[in-house]
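re the bet — no i am not wrong, look at it urself. input seq straight from the record:
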Amino acid sequence: MDRTAAIRKPPRANTVRERLTVPVLAFGGILMAVMQTVVVPLLPDLPRLTGASAGAVSWMVTATLLSGAVLTPVLGRAGDMYGKRRVLMAALGLMTAGSVLCALTSDIAVLIAARTLSGAAAAVVPLSISILRDELPPPRRGSAVALMSSTVGIGAALGLPLAAVIVQYANWHTMFWVTSALGALGVTLVRWAVRESPVREPGRFDIPGTLGLAAGLVCLLLGVSQGGPWGWGSGRVLGLFAASVAVLALWSWQQLRTERPLVDLRLVRQPRVGLSHVAALLAGFAFYANTLVTAQLVQAPEATGYGLGLSIVATGLCLLPSGIVMLLLSPVSARISAAHGPRVTLALGATVIAAGYAVRIADSRDLWMIIAGAAVVAVGTTLAYSALPTLILRAVPPRQTASANGVNVLMRTIGQAGSSAAVAAVLMHHAGPVGGVPVPTLHGYLLAFAMAGTVALVAAAAALCIPGDSAQDVTDGTDETDGTGGTGGPDRARNRTRGARNEAMEGA
């Protein structure tokens, strides 16, 4: 058989691999969310286990947040330049290395450094979505992207009970050995089942832009995450915010004058891209309050008059239905986007999130109503999170997909950080003594729900302001842009990708 025939008729193993591409990438997304969540049940005990202060232990979360925010757009750009599969494997490898380090040590400095490495996993979802755009035909793309977006919530819902069970019945290092094994499996599966995308954006890597973005984001997120402990009016926090504004303003000026920028701000100025990023920030804020408040509410002591006094394991199981809902509804969200456009799906999702918080406000004493309200918020999150990458895919050229989706995920991360800080401030302000210990009041929790619900409605309004989809977008979801805001058409994108594949075949 000649080489041409071999290319026309790939072996059966390749067909199996192609069928496993979506499940393998979804596994990576779930693994990323699990890795970010598993440390949460450990936080109350880590000061005793490591001999460190509670403030030092909190940096295990802060370090992951900061590194993830910085590395997501950086690795997205690297994926567009050097190959998305290659960079995806590197991100999963860093995550796994961080987990191995956590399993081997009890030293808090090493643990913080290890969690910083694990933050690279935040780039897994935008890189995977970009691979799906390049590799899947349009009829399969919508549902696959929706599933990939939902893995963030699915993994978070699965990770908490998994970690709680391991922590309760085994040595805490066991949890990190388990995640290390899962990470190694993820790298192996991606190497075996995922093909390298031929779509590239060549050029020099923007090192000044990378350093500027890193400095600006570290100042911003450090100020947000430490605003409560340090004091929002303290010199350190105000100085960090001022530095962030100055550095990011200078960074924006540099990006607009660079031929191959890390983040193409010209795309961000387009309403379809810029408003999608704004909606992502607001949706991230609204979604994250659900997990934060629910976990604290059900674990509150019964002496408060509203708390259920549940264990960490029981708390994780309360959040499990939300993960199942997100898994089951991801195909539905894709169908809604295909029929009515992703901006409608995003607006609907944000409205459903607000409705879920209305349920929480109506009744936050009965366990089943708490679970139902959290599940409604999960329904809205599934719709919103599945629509966001679809909006980005339709608004940017294929060669910039990973970096643009990386920025969108970054905006969600900033929203989640803001939500964490805002919820903490509300609950701290509305606290009363129970057994001599300050505990948030029910009124404080209800105010947090109202705040998150209001932000969700603002996200819905932002979604409706996004310019409407064309008829081509709604019918088949294959709109591609040429990078200037115009539509290049699906055929042009497919021909460009097909040509790149043929060149790759010929050079193999």
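see?? Confidence is low (pLDDT under 50) at residues 1-13, 470-508. told u. also Residues 106 and 156 are 24 Å apart (CA to CA). so pay up
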